Amino acid sequence: MLFNSFTFLVFAAAFFAIWPLTKNCRWRNLYIVIASYVFYGFWNSPFLVLLIVSTIVDYWAGRIIASRQSQKARNALLFASLAYNLSVLVWFKYANFFMDSTKGLLHLAGWDVTMPMIHVVLPVGISFYTFVTLSYTLDVWKGEIHPEKDFIKYAAFVAFWPHLVAGPILRATQLLPQLSKRRRMSWQLFYQGLFLVSFGYFMKVAVADNLAKYVERVYDKPFPITTGDAWLATYAYAIQIFGDFSGYSNIAIGLALWMGICIPQNFNAPYAAISFTDFWRRWHISLSTWFREYLFLPVAYASSRKVASLKISSRTQNLASFAIGTLFTMLLCGLWHGAAWHFVAWGGLHGLYLAVERFLGWDKGPPAGRAGSWRLLPRRLVVFQLVCVTWVLFRAKWGRGWVILKAMAGSGIPGAAGLYGPTAGASILLVLAVTLCIQHWFADKDLIGAAKAVRLTQRGYVLAEALLILASVVAMGGQGAFIYFQF
């Protein structure tokens, strides 16, 4: 069910009409579970079974792990949970990818082998809810949280519909305690949520969906392109993917606020970053922190023990373990985003940027209280340009991506007609300039803080804005699915 669809508006209206009638926490959690399963099953009801089975497996895995004293038994149970979740994820998301990659390697070795094609439909949101359940089991295994004994509450945590199919990726410590208490609604919370929901719809419907048609002209069509075409399309995509995904996150956060539940911010002015380390502290924050805690830190720690035996300086050891952990993490991060080698290349390039940045000592964030300084603007523009180069690998397949990168480097097709007229080019540059200026201004602020600053005296303006966005969504009928639904 798409947020930007009339069907969802009906679903949300019905949900929030009944919500105040659920008086105690257990009934509310049961209502969340039922609504979430309806929300998810509306897309493809058979795949609802995967969500339910994953919930049952990790609920019992957490309880049994916590009850065992033997570390060997705890490790075996953790392995069983990880094996189940990852095998399901790998099968549905990567079966054809591994088949194609194996066929390519055999072809390079001189073996002409015909591999069967497996037509697998990717369940929407499987990457997100799998990471939610994995983090829960790992936290129980590490002893950082106690296992949840109330199955209904745990099921509500896993299937919580605002974030179910595209994040943010919530941790048990962030959501489970809030499901144990009944928070009274207030007009202040209502208008804060309305501000975030309407702003999210604006970013998706008005910004991202309108830029999509400019991106498709260059990225999805085999036309010759000029250098200007390549840069304009890439700038448009940089704003499109930010508007699309941050829009979804803000809608999810706002909807949760209407339920009295606080979801952490998932984007914090990422194009105001002054380094790639700073960028990943601001972009898709829930995913970057997940990878940092559950993948980067264990790999970096294991590699540091290996390089400690080498006769090199402690600084070189630290840099080596950081580089190994970062490159490994970002390569898998790229693969998580999509079952194709251009996604792996995207992640690898980010990992390379991060490793070089640490080596040069450029990985520091902005000074405290000075994130909005205009002196940092040149660094922001450099980082943004490099981020745009990586977006080419993210958006385009190998052949077309190479054409676009060469054009961006100045090797555009001589004599090719520009795909953008003066009006379209000026529109893209105007949206780009406005976005970068706003992000620069928000560099040391946050959107949730801005939402909390909405006073009741401003409710008329917020309500008018929300009605305007609602009218646009209904009129457009949901122009396109959110980009991250495919991951």
Briefly summarize what is shown.
The protein is built from 18 helices and no strands. It has 487 residues and is an all-alpha fold. Helix 8 runs parallel beside helix 18 and helix 9 crosses helix 16.
Describe this protein with a few key phrases:
487 residues; mainly alpha; 18 helices
Protein architecture, described:
The protein has 487 residues and is an all-alpha fold. It contains 18 helices and no strands. The chain folds into two domains: 24-181, no CATH class; 188-481, no CATH class. It is 69% helix and 0% strand. The chain is globular. The mean pLDDT is 85.
Write the layout of secondary structure elements.
Elements: H1 6-18, H2 25-44, H3 48-67, H4 71-108, H5 126-141, H6 151-159, H7 172-175, H8 187-219, H9 227-258, H10 276-282, H11 285-307, H12 314-337, H13 341-360, H14 377-395, H15 398-411, H16 422-441, H17 447-452, H18 459-476
Helix pairs in contact: 2-6, 3-4, 3-5, 3-6, 4-5, 8-9, 8-18, 9-14, 9-15, 9-16, 11-12, 12-13, 13-14, 14-15
